[in-house]
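call fold(seq) -> tokens
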Amino acid sequence: MKVSESGKKLIKDFEGLRLKAYKDSVGVMTIGYGHTGKLLPNAITKAKAEEYFDSDVISAGKKVNKYHYNYTQNQFDALVSFAFNIGNIDQLTANGTRTLDEILEKIPLYVYAGGVKSTGLEKRRKAECELFSSDYSTVNTNNSTIKSYLFKKHANTYLSKNFQVKEFIAKGSPLRDMYERGVYYELWIDDRLVGFLQRIRDHFGRPIIITSGYRPAAYNKSVNGATSSLHIEGRAADIRIDGISPRVLAAYCKSIGVKGIGTYADFVHIDTRENAYYWNG
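ret:
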């Protein structure tokens, strides 16, 4: 995963640009955007500062990617800022054993420089926490709007008249347990998928059971899901309706414009692909 441009801006805003070498608050020689190291020049150009920054932000990103959490982009950016400033996220994450919720709780503790509380670090940690917990983002894919949600915060949020966020992680499944324990944090759901599901619910007048909705890529791989699965993008759901045969359910889905439909013995797969493809499982 790579830091976004807005993540880079956050780091630069707090580091500031200094083209002449100076000692930071704990006496470390620094230049550019918070660049440190041996044999620093006394002065550099802005172009050289950008070169140092690009290298340093890549290094910080590697220290965050060292731990295989299912980061959102905002969480990743916040932790890259933290690693850029502190040097790593090893202690913050307890070497990768803390949940993302626990990590967020610990970020505000890192506000001391040389044993003295720093107002500047308090402001930076606050900004990183706010970014880390920013819980909404959208991405347009083939005219579908995919939204990002935090499971623990938005589990009970209604996406339509009858569908809540938590339904896209099947109740009682190993994946639901992993979300509830904080192993996974974010999930994506396509608005068009929700729209199809609500139309189906209204037509049959019966609850829809989503047996598989969003799947984090790592989880999808662990259950031998297809590497190109639209479940990974939040654009697919496997569904069933008690008392309605998969054949009848699939036929209605096709009638309302669903273009990705797989009919199985006890459920129907639907997705928001643009080119029609129908199959029997």
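Residues 136-144 have pLDDT under 50 and may be disordered.
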